[in-house]
Structure formats: structure tokens, C-alpha cells
Amino acid sequence: LADGRRVFYRQFLADMETGNAPAAPSILLPGPSTYTMQTSLLPNTGVAVTQSGGTTGFPSTPFSYLLFSEWLCLGSQPRAVGVSNVITFLLVNVNNSSVHIRLLAGVSAPVFDGLYDAPINDVLSHILVSADPVTQRIQVYHNDAPLTLTSGGWTASGQFHIAPTYNGWNIGGAGSAAPGPGLADLFIAAPAAFFDLAVAANRRKFIRADLVPVDLGANASSVLGTAPPIYLTVRPGGTANDFAANNGTGGAFTIAAPPLVSQASGSCVLAPAPQPAVLPVREGLISLRWSDDRGHSWGSPVAQSIGDIGEYQTSLQWQRLGYTRDRVFELSWSVPMATALQGCWLIAEPADGGAPPQGGQSQS
Hints:
This protein is 7% helix and 35% strand. By secondary structure, it is mainly beta.
């Protein structure tokens, strides 16, 4: 990170962990999508939406799995978005160049603390995380592509356990330029089994292959079959303050400085869709085709590699060519090197079951 980004990022981490950052209003911005997803522009001054007390819909007993999803729009200036329950559970901080994830199993017991490089600028970006601290397995995706851990990692293993007396969620932004960073459709759940992000169908519950957001519905039960504890969103036709209502099961959040304000759409654009894979063009091929009516019509050629330059003893074979009478064969090739056809050999077996000719027939 550049020095300026490092300073504001470290300060933001401290603010999110202590919950002492000053509060300020958020702005909800409709983002481009197949549905009217609204992106909340968080202020640069810290915590904007909070919740405290209870387990906020998560199991009161230890649990083993985490599933996290959020949509972000940071812009080109240094900015960050933080989502944290840092005393006993989770911290996810994202800035323009990295994703920082910390997992805790009980009070002040971090089991994972890692940093991932991820250039996130003027486009709508999706962060998706699945973790199992018992087996020390974590998957982190940015815009449908896996991220690689660049520093830190697992320090211990154990189940998540949100202690009610230490529970508290802080969601906020930081940065060096206004407007602040954007956040939309925040989803946090404790699935009954590990949610494998390597399975494309699982990722498609949140993001399409062309990087367009998926509408999770009124309560996001489309993902796991039941509503998650946390699902902060503004549904089509809703008002800006709906963002803190929590459409999940864990109860409403508090807007630190109401009211939230909606802004006209268009300030954050979709990331370019991935280009379809281009199949490599095979070069240096030699093709065999044949005609069973003495050259009046031909079948499709069957190709294989002719070999590289200097491979003088390459032997090419086409086998199991079927039954025929009066068949004509044609060999063709085009390669950027000198070639010489030394000969062709045909081994045929009579249809009446007789023995094949000794050595076959040779032509050159």
C-alpha cells in the first residue's frame, strides 16, 4: 500500500475495532443491475450503521461455518469499507488494493488474520467469503475470481462462538476523498455445512457469470433455504432508511446519524464481463479424408499433429476406418516448414474374414 493509504487504513481498522469512530449519515445509491440494487455511500468518518446486544440471529452455541457476501463501490480515491464484530466473530475490511479478513473463535481468540491483494476501483465489486475455522479452510472471491492469500493466515482452529455480552456490529467507511465508499446487499450467515465457492452454482446464487448482481429476494432465503441473520439491503421501491432495517432474522440495525439519503443512479458502473475463452488454434496438422464413391464426395477430414521441426521419424496412424469398397484417400497439410512424404502404408482385412495381405499394400 502507498503510505497515505496505509495510514488511513490502519486508523480505520482501529476505529472499527474500538467502535469509537465518529458517526455520520450514509447515502444510498441505486447501482446498475438486473434489479434496482441500491449502494449505500458510507461517510469517510467511520461507523455509520451499528447493532449491539444479543447474538443477532446467529447460533448461541458454537458453530463451524461462515458465509459472507457484499457489493462495494470504492472509486479511484483511497477508500475502505469495514464490516466487523471484532470481539468474538469477524472483521472484513476492503480498500482499493486489498481485502483484510479476521476470524475469531470466542472472545479475543483470532484463528485467522490474512490479507489478499485485490484492485478495487471505479467498478461495482463483489466480495464473497466462505470459511470453516475447524478444518482451517477459507475461500475468498472478488468478482467471481478466487483471491490468493498474500500475507498472514491461520493461527489456530476452533468453532465460532458469538458471546452475547461482547456482541456488537459496526459498519462504516474511511477514505481521503468525498463521497465515501459504497456498500450494498450485505449478507452474513452461518450455514449448516461448508458452502463451497469452488462450485460455480454456489457463486451464481450471488453473482452471475457476467458479474451482474443476483437479486436475493426479500429476505435472501434463496441462498440457503432460510433467511440469514444479517441481510442489509434496500428493496426496489423502498426508502433509503430501509438499509438498516435488516431483512434477515437478527433484528434491526441503528443508523448512527439519520436519515439516510438516496442518490441518483449511475455513479458506480458494473465491472466488465469476462471475455469468453478463446480456444487455441492448433497448428502443424495433417488431415486424412476419404471418398467411397471414387472422389465424387468426401467425408470430414480427421486431423492430427504432423510433429515439430526436426522430428524426422514421426509415424502417423489412422486406425479403425470402417468398411468400404473403391475407397479413395487424400492426405493434406500446410505447415511453415519443409516437409517430405516418404510413403503411405495401408493395412486392410478382407470382409470375408480372410487373412490380411502380408505387409499390406505400399504406395509412395
